[in-house]
Amino acid sequence: MVGTLAELIMDVVGFGGMRYDASKPDGMPQKLLDVFGDGWGGG
Fold it and tell me: Residue 28 has what pLDDT?
């Protein structure tokens, strides 16, 4: 979604290009409420 918007803006303003680093995480990890544990947990 953000990448698509960034590409659209680059086309409009005439900016060169964009590279994606696949070794980096894709956004913030999701936080889930652990109702059976001691608070916030991953599942």
Answer: 77
pLDDT at 17: 79
- Max Cα separation, the chain? 52
Task: Name the strand (E) or helix (H) holding 10.
Answer: helix 2-13
User: Per-residue DSSP letters for 23-36?
Assistant: TS-SSPPPPEEETT
The helix (H) or strand (E) run that includes residue 2 is helix 2-13
- Predicted TM-score (pTM) of the model is 0.42
**Dist. CA 15–CA 7, nearest whole Å:** 9
Confirm if 38 and 31 have CB atoms less than 8 A apart.
Answer: no
